[in-house]
């Protein structure tokens, strides 16, 4: 971030943050995840300090105990048999303003367990920009670099400054720069390492730091639907508080803001990632966007046009699970669903898309204890 003229960035009141988790108990993952499914929790550790997190993970590794470090439970689908190992929840909710300067912008740091939308709210309310389009996403701050979270034209890779982790292989704490994380579309080395290390990867996120701009106007809008909602053109900028409200309205219209009264929000957000493939493989009339040497297309379009409309799948599970009635990319617990119910619908959706277009959809949430 280069030195530049400082734009108006007086603190503003933007109201409360939106819910980032749906914890109703501690005995099962149905009580710890936003989709409300999953079997029993084995050993549970509620850590309140960085030292407690590291000690719990290190002890599990040394004693051959499987370990899961759980954030908001918004991107985790646990099997109906549960997880017998050690589940560690980061209970901390701490945000620290590290530095503010005309050249460096605002350096804002938070503990991994901090609710993501609370972090976004603090940034906007202080007059800083760069993550406003990521408003309302459920989950914790610590998950954002793991998934390289993105929405409505912004990705955390654009403003991420550093990630403090516990390295389970080297058995020490360290700070990683963005270039060391291998960030790509909804992926990172942090996420990829789960293939070898299990439920929690090699690097356990302890805290995350972002570098934000000093401005109460948004970064240039990069998503057409958001620009339409705001009545502006792509590339224009608007007050960050207005952009946040537009994003929250869009997310609510798709059942993507947690609301206990709305069964469409009993989900894990987008269940499938948008395929990145060669242009020749993209169906006629499907949306496509350049992405490196390939193109990204819309998983929601593929699902809908393969015959899986909103609400699809209810007949497969006696009404317990289905695609959202608002958005075809979310799989939802309609009440009393099991993880097997969710996967039954997901498998049928994936199969129909593959049969129709030869494209295999990939799940975005981490699936523990069962397979898609």
Automatic annotation (TrEMBL):
InterPro entries cross-referenced by the UniProt entry: FAD-bd_PCMH, FAD-bd_PCMH-like_sf, FAD-bd_PCMH_sub1, FAD-bd_PCMH_sub2, MurB, MurB_C, MurB_C_sf, Oxid_FAD_bind_N
Pathway per the UniProt entry: Cell wall biogenesis; peptidoglycan biosynthesis
Species of provenance: Flaviflexus ciconiae
Main location: cytoplasm
Top-level taxonomic group: Bacteria
One Pfam family hit: MurB_C
This enzyme's EC code(s): 1.3.1.98
Gene3D superfamilies given in the database record: 3.30.465.10, UDP-N-acetylenolpyruvoylglucosamine reductase, C-terminal domain, Uridine Diphospho-n-acetylenolpyruvylglucosamine Reductase, domain 2
Claim: Phosphoprotein is one of the keywords in the record: no
Active site: 186, 270 (proton donor), 364
Biological process terms in GO annotation: cell division; cell wall organization; peptidoglycan biosynthetic process; regulation of cell shape
Residue ranges, annotated region (Disordered): 1-24
UniProt catalytic activity: UDP-N-acetyl-alpha-D-muramate + NADP(+) = UDP-N-acetyl-3-O-(1-carboxyvinyl)-alpha-D-glucosamine + NADPH + H(+)
Family stated for the protein in its record: Belongs to the MurB family.
Entry protein name: UDP-N-acetylenolpyruvoylglucosamine reductase
Sequence ranges assigned to domain FAD-binding PCMH-type in this UniProt record: 37-215
UniProt key word NADP: yes
């Amino acid at each position: 971030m280069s030195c530049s003229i400082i734009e108006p960035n007086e603190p503003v009141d933007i109201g409360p943050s939106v819910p980032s988790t749906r914890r109703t108990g501690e005995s099962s993952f149905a009580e710890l995840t936003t989709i409300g499914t999953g079997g029993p929790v084995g050993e549970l550790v509620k850590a309140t300090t960085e030292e407690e997190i590291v000690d719990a993970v290190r002890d599990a590794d040394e004693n051959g105990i499987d370990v899961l470090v759980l954030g908001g439970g918004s991107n985790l689908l646990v099997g109906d048999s549960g997880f017998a190992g050690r589940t560690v929840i980061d209970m901390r909710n701490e945000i620290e303003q590290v530095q503010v300067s005309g050249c460096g912008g605002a350096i804002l740091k938070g503990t991994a367990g901090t609710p993501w939308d609370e972090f976004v709210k603090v940034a906007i309310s202080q007059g800083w920009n760069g993550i406003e389009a990521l408003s309302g996403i459920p989950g914790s701050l610590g998950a954002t670099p793991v998934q390289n979270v993105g929405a409505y034209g912004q990705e955390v890779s654009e403003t991420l400054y550093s990630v403090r982790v516990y390295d389970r292989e080297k058995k020490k704490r360290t700070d990683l720069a963005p270039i060391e994380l291998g960030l790509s579309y909804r992926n990172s080395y942090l996420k990829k390492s789960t293939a070898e290390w299990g439920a929690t990867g090699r690097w356990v996120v302890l805290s995350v730091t972002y570098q934000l701009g000093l401005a109460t106007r948004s970064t240039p809008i990069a998503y057409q639907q958001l620009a339409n909602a705001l009545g502006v053109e792509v590339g224009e900028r608007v007050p960050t508080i207005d952009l946040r409200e537009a994003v929250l309205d869009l997310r609510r219209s798709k059942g993507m803001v947690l609301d206990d009264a709305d069964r469409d929000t009993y989900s894990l957000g987008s269940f499938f990632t948008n395929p990145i493939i060669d242009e020749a493989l993209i169906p006629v009339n499907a949306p496509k966007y350049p992405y490196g040497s390939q193109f990204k297309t819309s998983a929601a379009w593929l699902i809908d046009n393969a015959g899986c409309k909103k609400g699809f799948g209810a007949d497969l599970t006696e009404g317990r699970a289905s695609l959202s009635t608002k958005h075809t990319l979310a799989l939802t617990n309609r009440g009393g669903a099991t993880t097997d119910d969710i996967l039954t619908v997901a498998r049928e959706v994936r199969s129909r898309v593959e049969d129709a277009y030869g494209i295999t959809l990939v799940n975005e949430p981490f699936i523990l204890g069962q397979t898609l």
